[in-house]
Amino acid sequence: MAKSSMATESWSEFNVIEKRSLSIAAGVRLREFCVVDLPNVFASVYGWIPAFVTEGGTVVMLLGKELVRIECRREGKPVCSGRCKIESEKGWEGEVVVFDLPEDIVLNILCRLPVKSLIRFTCFSKRWRSIIISDSQFARTTFQLASQNRTLRQRLLLCTNPDHEDNGPPRFQCLGNLRVPRFGGNSMVQSLSLTPEVETARVMLASCNGLVVLGQRLRSFFTNLSLWNPSTGFHRKIPSPVFSMKEGTNSSSVAYGFGHVMATDEYKLVFFELLDLAVHIFSTRDMSWKVIRAPHSSFPGYGMSIFTPRSSFPEYNGVPLLVSNGACHWVRNWVPEPAIYAFDLAEEEFSKLSLPLALMPELPNGLYARQIYTQVLREGCLCVWTWNCYGYAEFWEMKEYGVPESWVKLFHFSVRDLPDIFVSTIGWTPVLVTEGGTVVFDLYDKKFYGDRELVRVKCHREDKPVCSGRCKIEGAIEGLAEYAVMVYDETLLSV
């Protein structure tokens, strides 16, 4: 009798200790269960670990050499919905563990992993390679989860292009994780292997959601356009635009942007032909171009500053426009009232946004002591930055798109605060900006085609900026006529 009583007390204590509540960070209780409700599963187990949990109450438990899937309910008792033995095989490399998991669980795990890891896993099996590289739904899910969780990884894509095709194909490189404390050194720069199709591209135009627009400037028009995903190697040719620039003009008379239309899940590449006021729009939905006309007052190029410290894109390859919130943006400076103009990719209409009041003209007759440019923060919000002839710059963010009152000054910056970095430069441009004040600058020295350098600077609201890393770009030397750098996202997306 005593033995029975003691057994009952031990079981009651075990019941209390082994009771678990599955919760999320916000403190909302999802489900709870008690191991005594599943004696056939937990009776002979010394310990267990939840390997996978969903908000719907599905839990995959690791119990020794067995995986068990349990459906936990808010009211009733939990139910075991599957068990899986873990087989061990002895091979020349040691013990190999084979997990025979249901595919839906495998996909739920994989879609939460970084793209770099997923690319490595394509060697695991043909099935995994097919899912990771070719499954468009899987690619969209990984991108959506990374965007929602703010774990989307951004890298810098570099292109050094010989001045003549006989000198070889362009060289593409990517810069490693920009969030690491150490910035710089050869270990951060990785050369990308190119397919023959990519090697024919001479110009890197724009990027959106991991897709990069490549092309070739041939005499008076753009040709050989394609979309390329550097992470997966995806490459697809697209038709060339139908316009041809007039003889005697350069391609700085053309502006362009590339972005995603969420409502229709399509990408649009837009060329603004400044001389004829024509907008050439390409859509991946029907893989064709169309042309619309635009009003003179809204068109980019009139009142735009092209020759500025932002020199990452040679002006003879056109003027890139920043895309945020589904629209191309540019600033017209040389007018009585500077403003941001936008072209909505979904509606294909022009609009106007107000600049911060603090950036309004300082001199009479519309003369302006500083220039203003658009920028997109790493977090995706629209940003403008302004600089004057003394090398003083400010960065502003529009917290709520389209609301003038939501402009907030993020930080300021002066080249005089970092003389060791900027003293020998004749140009610089911010290629990556974050809300926290981290800026990656592209610098070039007094030899216009001299060595290029990327510098990471931590800017503060009050204190002076601090340089947190420098990275020399080998190959951007005299004899290489074109060099460009842009930010791209690591994704699995294709079109």
Could you give a quick summary of the protein structure above?
This protein has 495 residues and is mainly β.
How would you characterize this protein structure?
With 495 residues, the chain is mostly beta strands. The chain contains 8 helices and 33 strands. Residues 1-27, 88-98, 305-316 and 363-367 have low confidence and may be disordered. 13% of the residues lie in helices and 41% in strands.
Please state roughly what percent of the residues sit in beta strands, choosing from under 5%, 5-15%, 15-25%, 25-35%, 35-45% or over 45%. 35-45%
Helix count from the secondary structure assignment: 8
Spans of 5+ residues with little confidence (pLDDT < 50)?
Answer: 1-27, 88-98, 305-316, 363-367
Question: Roughly how many Å apart are the termini?
Answer: 73 Å
On the 0 to 100 scale, the average pLDDT is 76
List the helices and strands and how they pair.
Elements: H1 2-17, E1 20-23, E2 29-33, H2 39-42, E3 49-53, E4 58-63, E5 66-71, E6 79-85, E7 87-91, E8 94-98, H3 103-110, H4 115-121, H5 126-134, H6 136-148, E9 154-161, E10 171-175, E11 189-191, H7 196-199, E12 203-208, E13 211-218, E14 221-228, E15 235-237, E16 254-261, E17 266-273, E18 278-283, E19 288-293, E20 319-320, E21 322-324, E22 327-332, E23 339-344, E24 349-353, E25 370-376, E26 382-388, E27 392-398, E28 407-414, H8 419-422, E29 425-433, E30 438-445, E31 452-458, E32 466-473, E33 482-489
Parallel strand pairs: 16-20
Antiparallel strand pairs: 1-2, 3-4, 4-5, 5-6, 7-8, 9-10, 9-33, 10-11, 12-13, 13-14, 14-15, 16-17, 17-18, 18-19, 21-22, 22-23, 23-24, 25-26, 26-27, 27-28, 29-30, 30-31, 31-32
